[in-house]
Amino acid sequence: MPRRLARKQVAAPVLSEQASDFLSPEEHWKRRKAPLTRATHRCDVEADAGATLATTHATTPLRCAFFARGVCHRGPQCDYVHEIPDDAFFRYAGTQPQFDCFGRQRSGEDLTNRNDCTTLFIYLGGVLLASNDNSADAIAALVGNDFSAFGPIAFVNVIISKSIAFVRYSHRSSAEFAKEAMHRQCLSGDRTETVLSVRWANEDPNPKAKARVKREREERFVGKVGGDVRMAGDRDDEGDDEGDDEGDDEGSDDWRRYVTDDDDAGDADDDAGD
Predict the structure, then answer these.
(1) pLDDT tens by residue, 124-162
(2) Angle in degrees, 0-180, between the axes of helices 234-241 and 207-225, rounded to the nearest 10
(3) pTM for the structure as a whole
């Protein structure tokens, strides 16, 4: 059975989604400081995904950043893949840590400090559900439903008093795609249509997740050198995490250190994807 072709999401290029590489320094600064406005388009993975030149000719596994934003006008003629990252891509991404899932070069800071981070920080603002159930669990379910469309999620934590949420993906590539797709969007079911601000978290705020990342780094190091390496203090660190609840620090401002100061989510270097 022939594979379905990718759908053209728009008829012509959307100038408001022009890559920041093509903006002047003044325009780039204005875009960073301007109030968030709702994106004009949105990626519907089920309706939009399909075969492109990249998949039919197996030229590249890289994903299309414009497809993620819902504004790719090339459809089946696109040189990039119109699908969310899958298992095959997760394996490929592990061999190319210097690039994101769209083929964009990661900065030096990103490579050293956030290469293992799979958590997104989301400012929810004044989200109000149509069901009038605005509990943390209800909003977390809504966030999880929207963000899970772009890859498997490990957990969602909503802090009502701060109007923020943390979404941790199982894979870095899924988080990269979701960050591109959901920034400046609105949650389905939010009757206020509040525009979301989606950024990288500096690191996962959950202490158990920090221990997990530490173990994964050690395991990769062991695999590379072929030796039996054991970091000092590993058992002590893991023991300290027992009994900690995920993201239960609602009463403090410690969450602020998990948000990147220099990473305006709408200003990625969009030099690939269309």
Answers:
(1) 988 777 667 788 899 999 999 999 999 999 999 999 888
(2) 150
(3) 0.73
